[in-house]
Design goal:
α2 links the parallel β1 and β2. α2 packs across α9 and α6 packs across α11. The protein folds into 2 domains: about 160 residues, D-Maltodextrin-Binding Protein, domain 2; about 120 residues, Periplasmic binding protein-like II (D-Maltodextrin-Binding Protein, domain 2, 3-Layer(aba) Sandwich). The chain has about 325 residues and is of the alpha/beta class.
């Protein structure tokens, strides 16, 4: 039987051979990876949207998808994977291969907020490669005719005089709309009951049917009802008035709500580990899309402000998450 010492040279030789083979494999694989990046994209890309068709995220995603298809030279297909406040779609993208063929156009709800309020959300920011910020738009506080309120001063005085008698609706627990409503309550010293809905469509139906007094919408979702006169806009949630609705005051113009600022934003995201070459191509294509006049007009007409170019997404997401965490903590929002 061979002794232990006699096996050492053979073992060392095998290890040396394995290392050489592995090194050879990497030498062959490196050009292959570069070639795959250079050929990207070579087949259709899917953009997942975590909401049903018709909402603000869907409109943003479809606008960007149509333009990216022209710039990347392949079909860009939109897939609506609605449910759970956008988190079903986000989870699908987090689990997808990091090859650039499955992307997410998501809102702050599913990207940064949901995991702060629900233990059922399993993904983290680190599970995504941020491509870039697309746009943002304010939310808007609206009143139904049932409320009898005609302006923001009247809203603040009426609700304060009758604590607990009024309700406001949002598109669900832990959404940006819910957080905006809680900020208004906190800064205004108000007591209102929050009614969560499964999206803005049923919320709109109840407001139009005078079943609830107040609601918070993303501006683009509320604009048709505001323009028709069926809902009254009390104020928008950014520190300054929206360019598309200069006649609607910012809530921050009210002394009690000075400094209030929160909006809804949309970003293009990919699974974590996306190759740098693919990431760069997508960032460049997105930047070009956001400079296209037709894209800008469509998004701006819906109430969005186009994001500045080259936003550094890591500190942006960290700052936004910290802001949302504070709101979640003081309002004790849990799902």
């Amino acid at each position: 039987m061979p002794t232990h010492s006699s096996t050492q040279p053979a073992l060392a030789a095998r290890r040396l051979l394995s290392a050489a083979c592995l090194g050879g494999w990497f030498a062959l694989a490196a050009p292959l990876c570069v070639a795959q990046t250079d050929s990207y994209p070579s087949r259709p890309i899917t953009i997942v949207i975590g909401y049903p068709p018709g909402g603000s995220t869907d409109l943003t995603g479809r606008t960007i998808a149509a333009d990216l298809a022209k710039r990347l030279g392949v079909p860009v297909v939109v897939e609506n994977a609605g449910g759970a406040g956008g988190t079903i779609g986000a989870q699908k993208v987090a689990n997808a291969p990091a090859d650039g063929y499955t992307l997410l156009v998501g809102a702050n709800n599913e990207i940064a907020i949901s995991r702060l309020v629900s233990a059922s959300v399993k993904y983290q920011l680190k599970d995504f490669t941020p491509i870039g910020l697309i746009a943002s738009q304010p939310m808007v506080l609206v009143a139904s005719s049932k409320s009898g309120v005609k302006n923001m001063a009247q809203f603040l005085s009426t609700v304060k005089k009758h604590p607990g008698q009024f309700s406001y609706g949002s598109s669900g627990v832990g959404t940006a709309l819910h957080l905006a409503g809680e900020m208004i309550k906190d800064q205004g010293g108000l007591f209102m009951t929050h009614i969560p809905y499964r999206g803005v469509a049923p919320l709109a139906n109840d407001l139009l049917g005078n079943n609830i007094e107040f609601g918070v919408f993303v501006l683009s979702s509320a604009l048709p009802h505001i323009k028709s006169g069926r809902l009254l806009a009390l104020g928008t949630t950014e520190s300054k008035r929206a360019a598309v609705t200069p006649d609607i005051p910012a809530l921050a113009e009210s002394p009690q709500l000075k400094g209030l600022h929160i909006n809804s934003w949309f970003a293009l995201m990919a699974p974590a580990g996306l190759p740098e070459g693919v990431t760069s191509k997508l960032k460049r294509a997105l930047a070009e899309s956001l400079q296209a006049p037709d894209v800008r007009k469509k998004l701006e007409d819906s109430g969005s402000a186009i994001a500045p170019l080259n936003v550094d997404m890591a500190p942006f997401l960290a700052t936004e998450t910290a802001t949302y965490q504070k709101i979640v903590n003081f309002a004790n929002i849990k799902e």
